[in-house]
Amino acid sequence: MAALGALRVIRVCSVFEPATLTPAAARYDAIGGMQNHAAELSRCLDQMGIRQVVLTSRLDGPAGRTRFGEHGQVVRTGVHIPVARQAWAAAAARTALSERRPVSLVHAHCGEDVALMPLAALAARRHGCPLVVTVHTSIRHTLRVDSARKALLRLAGGLGEGRALRRADAVIALTRQAADLLVRDGLPDSKVRVIPPGYDPHLFSTVIPDPFPELPRPRVGYIGRIAPQKDVGTLVKAFGMVAEPACLLIVGDGPGRPAAERLAAGSVPAGGRVHFTGFLPHAVIPAVLQHIDLLVLATKYEELPSVLVEGMAAGLPVVASRVGGIPALVDHDVNGLLVPPADPATLAAAITRVLAEPGTAARLSAAARRTAERYTWPALARQVAALYRELTAPDALPGLPGAAARRRYSARTAATAASAPGSECPRPAAALPSLAASAGSVSTARTAVARASGRPGGTSSAASSPVSAGTPPTRVATTGTPARSASCRMSGCPSQMLGSTKTSAAASSAGRSGRCPANWTVTPSEAA
Question: At what angle do helices 377-392 and 33-47 cross, to 10 degrees?
Answer without folding.
Answer: 70
